[in-house]
Design a protein that fits this description.
Blueprint lengths: L7 E10 L2 E11 L4 E5 L6 H8 L7 E6 L2 E2 L6 H10 E4 L11 H11 L5 H14 L15 H14 L4 E5 L7 H16 L3 E5 L3 H7 L2 E6 L2 E6 L1 H6 L4 H10 L1
Parallel strand pairs: 3-8, 3-9, 6-7, 7-8
Antiparallel strand pairs: 1-2, 1-4, 4-5, 9-10
This protein binds adenosine-5'-diphosphate and magnesium ion (MG).
Amino acid sequence: MNRSGALIEIDNIRKSFGDFQVLKGISLTVQKGEAVCIIGPSGSGKSTILRCINGLIPVDEGFIRVGEHRVHEMKTEKAMRPLRHQVAMVFQQYNLFPHRTALENIMMAPIQVLGHDRAEVEDRARKLLKKVRLSEKANNYPGQLSGGQQQRVAIARALAMQPEVILFDEVTAALDPETVKEVLFTIRELVDDGLTCILVTHEMKFAREVSHRVCFTDHGLIVESAPPAELFDNPQDPRTREFLGQVL
Ligand code: ADP
Ligand code: MG
């Protein structure tokens, strides 16, 4: 099934943990180059949606396609591998390797996982460090970097795999307010460059200014999905209105 030219197509996915149904029929289509923000209360299923998209969690029902990959049909880690190369994920906890420099952190996966040529990978890694404005930190270890700098290295590391899409899960939630800005600035530049991404975020101003579309989730459903100006200025569902009333 490839009913549209969309890069990502999710149709009516359901997921339970034990008796608890976390996703109750989520549908979402993302075009190439689109930046979609997912907002919603804690526990509404936002992270679970992202984990289903890159196959970290198998869905119980429904359909997920990313590019050529029919994710809902993939059963083994081996089958997942090409998908994981196409779909990068950046988390709240950056999880850099502490005994590797910023540059080495970015180079590891392309060399070890993709088997790319070391000199080529290093060249690309330096360009990525420049892109996230950390050229001068190439030889620093994660412990010598601020949280925001570490998160930008983590973003560069994700980009080093040359993914088709990046999933960002509350990547600024653990950062000091001063460093949140620099990370959001980096993401904004990537969106401007045409990177396809899905961002779970609590940064409403960022969602409004940067995303093409915002989805509001509540209790395992996408309650409302609209361009940011519409969703923030004229929310249609009472649950969206209530949530925005609390966070804005
Ligand atoms: P959000 O990211 O919106 O805060 P999550 O997708 O992380 O929400 O979680 C949604 C619900 O599913 C929460 O109630 C959470 O406790 C539950 N949940 C998530 N992952 C698991 C898991 N692996 N096992 C059991 N329950 C889980
Ligand atoms: Mg979450």
